Amino acid sequence: MLPLMGMVSLDEQRIVTACDAGFCTAFQCADAEVIGLTIDELLEVGPALAGLGSLAKPHESLDLLGALRIRERAQLARVRLRRSGAGYALHAEAVHEEQDVLYRASVLAGSWAAMFRESREGALIIDTRGCVLEHNDAFRTLLDLDDGSLVGRPVAELLERRFPRLALFLREPSGELLTREKVGAATFEMKAGAITAGAPLGAWVLLRDLGPELAREAAVEAHERDLGRARVLQRALFSRPAVSSQYTTEIVYRPLQHIGGDAYDITVLPDRVRLFIADATGHGVAAALVAMIAKSTYDAIKHDPIDASAVLATLNDRVANNMRGADGMFTAAIVDVMLATRTLVHAVAAHPPPLLAHDGAVEPLEFGGTFMGVVPGRRYPSWTRPLEPGAAVYLVTDGIEETRNADGTQFGTDRIRETLAEAVASRGNSCKALIAKLDAWAGPVGIDDDITIIGLRDQGIRKQ
After folding, report:
1. 212 — phi, psi (to 5°)?
2. 232-261 pLDDT, tens digit each
3. If 0-12 CB within 10 Å is exposed, 13-18 middle and 19+ buried, where does residue 171 land?
4. Is the Cα dihedral 414, 419, 425, 427 positive or negative?
5. Dihedral of the CA atoms 425, 427, 432, 436 (nearest 10)?
6. What is d(CA 347, CA 383) in angstroms, rounded to the nearest whole number?
7. Distance from the first to the final alpha carbon of the chain
8. Taking a C-beta distance cutoff of 8 angstroms, is the pair 317, 377 a contact?
9. How far apart are CA 79 and CA 10, in angstroms?
10. Mean pLDDT for the chain overall
11. Residue 370: what pLDDT?
């Protein structure tokens, strides 16, 4: 197949003034689409056009390989530029790129160079002689080299002493290399690969300082270790008690993260079983610290034979005084099951109401009070009622009620009560049944709060 060729005339300002029919045929265009374009708009060959100004005599020419851009479409061409009168003549031959190794090499190297110049990683393009063909500023900065150009310098001279494995690969590049090497206090990751287009054309190198990334990883690992230790310490505060033979306990504690902002306790006193639950505002470490402060403070007073409201008032005063204006706000509830009189006494501080299961149903008990840990001197309401044989009482945090499904609908109090009633009636583990129902409700959305449920069940409960 004979090559398709054509000619374009340009004036002294390098603007196209005419093109012949051969050019329009070769590059499938109309002359009106070309006339008026500058040479920079028409021809894409990189910095090689800088040599155009040196053409002084008609027999001198500039031979280039590049792309002609017409209608925003790049068409491959071999180009010869020469002086013609007061302007220039451009002879262009269409190139079939799939058959032209030289063209593919040029375009490929140009693509790598453009990408590397913009890369934040250190980047090199190396020719077949092992010399630098292109580099970016990041490469020079990473290796603390002088401000001069590295183009033309042997790669071995730059890399062999610092990165011997990389230098060895670049002597005969084949495939790709990924390695890490430590240079002084710095650790670098290096990627390198051969550039080929039917024939070896050179190689590319990417260089990255892993220092910031390794520092972040070390910080994350240290943070994870600290959270792991905090998790162990927090769980130690919530140890499961030995309860009298008259009652059994159920506990589910699921923090949203490693550690949670919920706290709970079940303690056996000589005359009662005392249940305690608390929920710090917010999530994460800050909420967990408030919960741990509340729990450790509660541990110091929970054995006092005083009523539930007095325990909450004392707890609030101590936490509020110790926090001294810091954000230590939390809700809480206490239920005392009096062993001799079979009565239930409960006090609430802005917490969801206790839930009493009896006669096949679950009812919320009275609730009220204000947040704890803010200011001392608060008082909290309490209520007393008989506890029927076979009854069960539950304390929950608000993360259960507020859990949403994919449609944004909350789980709600009605579902909590229905699930607990069904589990109590079947003598199943009510807390685990509630969590299973909650997980199914949340689905892929997942639960987005700390979850705690504690329950005390009379051994006399029978299947309804």
Report:
1. -60, -40
2. 666 666 666 656 677 888 888 888 877 788
3. exposed
4. negative
5. -50
6. 7
7. 94
8. yes
9. 14
10. 82
11. 92
Q: Is the pLDDT of residue 463 over 50?
A: no
Q: What pLDDT digit, counting tens, does each position of 63-108 carry?
A: 777 778 887 777 778 888 888 888 888 888 887 654 444 445 555 5
Q: Which amino acid is at 290?
A: V
The per-residue b/e assignment along 65-76, b for 16 or more CB within 10 angstroms, e otherwise, is bbbbebeeeebb
State pTM to two decimals: 0.57
Strand segments (E) across 56-121: 61-70, 73-84, 87-94
Cβ 336 vs Cβ 382: under 8 Å: no
Question: Using DSSP, how many helices (H) and how many strands (E) does the chain show?
Answer: 12, 21
187: left (phi over 0), alpha (psi -120 to 50) or beta: beta
What is the rounded CA–CA span in Å between residue 15 and residue 42? Answer: 9
Beta strand ranges found along 237-342 (DSSP E): 247-254, 262-268, 272-280, 330-338
- Which of 159-163, 378-382, 388-392 is predicted least confidently? 159-163
Contact partners, residue 396, CB within 8 Å, separation at least 6? 277, 352, 355, 416, 434, 452, 453
Question: Is the four-CA dihedral 130, 135, 141, 147 of positive or negative sign?
Answer: positive
What is the spatial distance between Cα 115 and Cα 138, in angstroms, rounded to a whole number?
13
**How many Cβ atoms are within 10 Å of 431's Cβ, its own excluded?**
23
Q: What is each CA distance from 194 to 109, 127, 188, 297, 319, in whole angstroms? A: 12, 10, 20, 66, 67
Residues in the chain: 464
Residue 226 has pLDDT above 90, yes or no: no
Tens digits of per-residue pLDDT, 395-408? 999 888 888 888 88
